[in-house]
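In the previous chapter we treated chains in isolation. Here, by contrast, the input contains two separate entities that must be folded as one system, with a combined length of 704 residues.
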Amino acid sequence: MSLRADRRLARVAGIERQLQRTLEAAGFVTCRDILGVSVIELIEALDVDLDQACHLADVVAAEVAAKPRTAHQLLSRMSETSYLRTGIRPLDAHLGGGLPHRCVVEAVGPAGIGKTQFCLAVAARALVDGASDERRVVHIDTAHNLDLSTKRLTEMLELLLNEQRRDSPVAHSCTVAELASRLLVWRPDGWDEYCHCLKELEIALLAAPARVTLIIVDSVAAPVRAHFYTKDQRSTRQEQLVAHTALLKYLADTHDLCVLVTNQVQGSGDRQMVDFASSDCVSSVLGRDEARLVCCLGTVWAHSVNIRLVLERKAGWASASVASTIGIGWNAAESQEIRVAKAPMCANCERFGYKVGPEGLRSC
Amino acid sequence: MEVSQLPLPPSMVEMLHLAGFSVVADLDGISALELADELKMSPSDASQLLASVRSHGLRTPRAPPATSALELLHDERHSEKIVTAVKELDDLLGGGIPLRQLTELVGVPGVGKTQLSIQLALTVQIPRLFHGAEGEAVYIDTEGSFMAERAHAMAEALLRHLHATAHRAADHAQAAAAASLRASHLLERIHCFRVHDAAELLATVRSLNFFLAERKTVKLVVVDSVAFHFRHGVSDYTRRHQMLGQLTQALSEYATRHSLSVVMVNQVTTKVNDATNTSSIQPALGESWAHACNIQLVLHWMNGTRVARLCKGREPGWAEYQVTEEGVRSVQNPTRGADT
């Protein structure tokens, strides 16, 4: 992360030579060092008067401060290509065109609901839609889900390519192999390696021969749950988790791309919390009971993502009878839904039924 | 006044002390040359020192003039408010979010804090003819959640509402004012600052001083959210407090000086009690932060409905609300807009 606050004071124009030397002697190296302390502390540490200290703080603040852009300017930089389609049309329309760039999107749901499928479907479309510009996708596979899914990915690419050729006959010629080679897979083991990957990611993004439009992390819960499991680690976990999301958001914003992360669910031991934080709630049909589950990683994480999509199982209208006659463990006639639990651009939480088709996910 | 109270470099204060100057009056009538001789410094440094003593030291601090409660009441009744567009909530707030105050907006993820903030950045622009503040908005976005498309949709809805209000009242002046407004105009008056860490947030708020001096019409500053960057990277607890204090102090100064409203969005945290093995949801940033704001609005879910609860600032109460295509609205009358 190359943040403006990490700029060295020596590079800041408007600080006199004499003062530069005093700063260095007093141990102030970067802009961050100045911004974190009060003016009184500056007077004490640098032996300057109030006006000089204020002036210094102002100069450094001006160097680091964000530059304003009006909402109108922000709107005009959005275009059709600022969204990644999921393939579930009503969902894409609801979100304004798909998963927006510059956002961290979370897909959360019980095991086997299709989170990895969802990621692959979005990745495949991103590759096919961005084929003419050689757009790339980075896939960080912490749960090693991709082993079993590479064939699935090529199937999706194949079908989507055919669809594209059919719709626009003049389209460029691009093979499935070419597209698959534009999906870069990183497979870190454990939290530390994962964090290391993220730090390297920015260099990789800058070095990539063409623009990366999507970063997938499947899943973020796996390394976190494996690494922080005792109660004493709770505050460290929170802090590291937020720091890691801040990094993802920084990448999404500065490189104009979408970050899609998956998260797991767990049983809720605490009734009160589920009632209160309803975007945390996940319902799922397990056996014949509707289970109450909550998203992993807690409230701090839930605050940190921009968009939360909850993948849920709902008992269908024919479910009970069918399940009992077939006698299988899970509900055959269940329907699957994506609920938009959090999205700053949408009205009240909407639900969208979907099913897994050969070309990815589709509306139903 | 003691010499040590002067805003001088500590070394200078030390020198004055050693030379026997302990109160400012000791320096009365002394010439630069005399002082230079006493302190063993160059006459130019000495005259500079005297100049700074005169400018600061002889300025005795004066208490601000007192006002009566009646005057304050009058001011409050007649000052502009920023409507939330949820009628029941505006009633609780006495017309809307007041200017010159710090308001905290705290709530669980996905409950609509950001959407309400975006909407406030639009309703602050309601023209005076409609009893609005007719101001611009500054939006400091720490989470990347400001959605320009959403702001655009809300702006269109607000304009429709203004047209309808003017039409109902058969007020030609209002109709003309509403007709002259475009959604793009409203969006041009929202100034967004995207910040990526706590230091950038502090720097941006400090630099806002100059921005606000240039743009006198800014009537709302939103920080969405204060919590995010203070929940990582600043591990030292005292340092975090000092930084938060610095932030609120600056914002509170702007609120008074430019008579604008400051809205600070806060996150919630799950407090776990290991002894009883229970957990509860509380505003983040701790107890001392809770004192920083004059008004606290808590947004949460109650039986599947969104509820805004006024916890501090006025008589406590709560109002249900919903988030529609138009924006944040009352539940009873979903089409009702910004009430003027």
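Residues 36 and 96 of chain B are 60 Å apart (CA to CA). Chain B is about 40% helix and 20% strand. Compare these points with the single-chain example from earlier in the chapter.
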